[in-house]
Amino acid sequence: MSRAKIPAAIGILAALGLLLFLLPLAGLIVRAPWNQALGELTDPTTTTALGLSLFCSLTATAIALILGIPLAMILARTRGTLRNVLRALTTLPMVLPPVVGGVALLLAFGRRGLVGSLLYQAFGIQIPFTTAAAVMAETFVAMPFLVIAVEAGLRSLDHRYEEAARSLGAGYWRVFVRVTLPLLRPAIFSGAVLCWARALGEFGATITFAGNFPGRTQTVPIAVYIALETRPEAAITLSLILLVVSVALLAGMRERWLGAL
Amino acid sequence: MRRRALAPLALFLVAACGLQSPAAPTRTALTVFAAASLQPAFDKIGKVLETSQNVDTTFSYAGTQTLVAQLTQGAPADVFASADTTHMASLQSAGLVQESKIFAHNRLEIAVAKGNPKGIRSLADLARPGLVVVLADPSVPAGKYAQQALAKAQVTVHPASLEQQVTGVLSKVALGEADAGIVYVSDIATSGKVDGVAIPDDQNVIADYPIAILKPAQNASGAKAFVDLVLAADGQAILKAAGFGGV
Lengths: 261, 247
Description:
- By secondary structure, chain A is mostly helical.
- Chain A is built from 12 helices and no strands.
- In chain A, α4 crosses α7, α8 packs antiparallel against α9 and α11 packs antiparallel against α12.
- By secondary structure, chain B is α/β, with parallel strands linked by helices.
- Chain B is globular, with a radius of gyration of 20 Å.
- Chains A and B meet through α11 of A and α3 and β6 of B.
């Protein structure tokens, strides 16, 4: 079982590909204003954006869990064309440019949108420019990651445990809470982490649908974008924070994933 | 199946390449970075230059502060037109611009939905609770001017969003997501989708628009032709028609 030797050209191209990932990271780390980092970290703009991002991304993940797990259960049960259509719809936000998602959200939930106009006329509720809009944009973009992970988990589930519990007299909800959910835990966990990471990094849909206002809709990625024009040091510091979070997630996920697979 | 899915992509790529194929050899390309509010006027000036001088102008419109950030990071451009003198001065001190000339003036106006359903009459009305007001970010010239006007009128506004360019404010009002926004007179004159509420002189701010040839210009003669046209009677007439005050 000797493998063919890899030609040098492939090695060179692979190295170039790796450099494309590594150099920007190196740029971020080398150009970071380390001596000012602490000052930037405690700056109100930074802390406000961090707090808001944490709140929005965690809320989005919670909503994704509540809505996404049932959606994954339905997906795992369906077959054929229906399943293909449902799955395409659910995964669309993963491939859709986020800014298009933002425009679509605006046309659905804006003051003149399909649903938004009814909400506005009946209750005076306006969603754009609110923190709720930022959460919705993040949920829209990030929930597919959870749905896909949980659906995969459900498909590989050994249903004999559920059948055994049912034959012993447990009702549907009891089986779901005591048997299905614990079995799904690795899938739910990795799905939720991916979903949270995607929500934390959301930019395009948020700025389009929710706008930009500190403390209300200015999440960390938007603060980075805006600060780059006026206070580049703050932009680099915030970028570093997101980078550290991402690396930590990746490091944490590896073991979980290897354990789950 | 897969091949069929790729066909539109291939078609698009062919079309995109076709668009980029070089034009007649005498044609020269020019890149102009201009404040977002200049788009209606500059698009027309670009067309005039295309027919008269055979210069093919590509515009990059954005908030002045965005363009300055890009230019100081080395973005290639021949001409820069700013919505304030401060940002032009920062390019000057960065050594990217030698001299600039004021070529137009603008004033602020309140943009409201067609027919002014919320009955907005003055800057003071923008402080009304429940009103959704959108402004440009204070780092954007239009946002800075709006702050100055609101300070003169002694009005405190709680904006719903701070946009990165004045045209973002305009579109939020035009889309009906915002009840009002502070934009330029020229934005309302050319938009057609919003109505304007005038701001009296004693509360208003005059915006000076400077233009300059950038030092690393690739097409210096084209850049000069563009700046000359903007300052000439033809260019000034286009700017006036778009709601700007000439010089």
